[in-house]
Amino acid sequence: MNATPFRSGFVALLGRPNVGKSTLLNYLVGQKIAITSPTAQTTRQRLRGIVTLPEGQMILVDTPGIHKPHHRLGEILVKNAQTLVRSVDVVLLLVDGSQPAGTGDGFIAQGLATQKTPVLLGLNKQDLVADEQGERITASYQALLPAAPLLPFSAVTGQGIPELQAQLLQALPPGPCYYPPEMVTDQPERFIMAELIREQIFHLTREEVPHAVAVVVERVEETPKITRIFAAIVVERPSQKAIIIGNQGQMLKTIGSQARQEMQKLISGPVYLQLFVKVEPKWRQTPRLLQDLGYRLES
Ligand SMILES: Nc1nc2c(ncn2[C@@H]2O[C@H](COP(=O)(O)OP(=O)(O)OP(=O)(O)O)[C@@H](O)[C@H]2O)c(=O)[nH]1
Known about the structure:
Belongs to the TRAFAC class TrmE-Era-EngA-EngB-Septin-like GTPase superfamily. Era GTPase family. By secondary structure, the chain is α/β, with parallel strands linked by helices.
């Protein structure tokens, strides 16, 4: 008789912007499906990463970092996180464990304290913690959610990840394999391709520019030799368009060539990438444009 049942279920990855949610997701699924950057608020859309083990299947839901909203796009992101918490089996609240808890972590912990969903507290970035700081930092997080188990780890070095994975699995109920074992994400390749372009814009441009950008893959043509991808970069102002294009088109060229290399890894084949830049004034405040660009309230 098999004493340990197969477990499965949904885990929400929540946390302030920049705590390493996307980095952890990529580490756990073993492939780059979520884009990352040193700039906060890179992730905008919910993305599922699927981890299938002999003992069970975890469906990890990456979310945009939670912060107090400043515009309509920000409000949609926070509301979606609240809806998500009610629909998952367990919440992994991620924090930057290299620094003591801040007001942003308190804001999220308060929201979670009123929910019934169990919470695990993941202390990321342990590779940056000096021995003498560890205890003080840990205590500051434990005070936010006294009942939550604390799991220190690093999404870059992998330390502590086996324990984290085992605890997450234990928190899930017995259940079926929801997705085929070889599947690592629920998002279509087109979405990940658009994200790979946005990631380069985060790496290569500054201040408000990456936050004012949306990317839409408009057409994909697959031939036996090469995959041709045509994508639009949408910005809010002509000045942002000028930055994205750069002097003699140099910036757009660099964005394109770096994104193309990432896309080639994703599809394991040669890619031709053509980028256009479009101005849509105030797309972040305009419901119709938000919807056209794929941002909507999730149920
Ligand atoms: N040293 C170190 N850096 C990390 C670790 N995990 C993530 N980072 C870095 O932290 C930055 C933010 O990581 P992301 O994974 O993009 O963070 P996120 O929480 O998804 O961010 P948002 O999309 O803004 O919500 C990146 O520069 C990562 O390389 C870690 O364990 N150690």
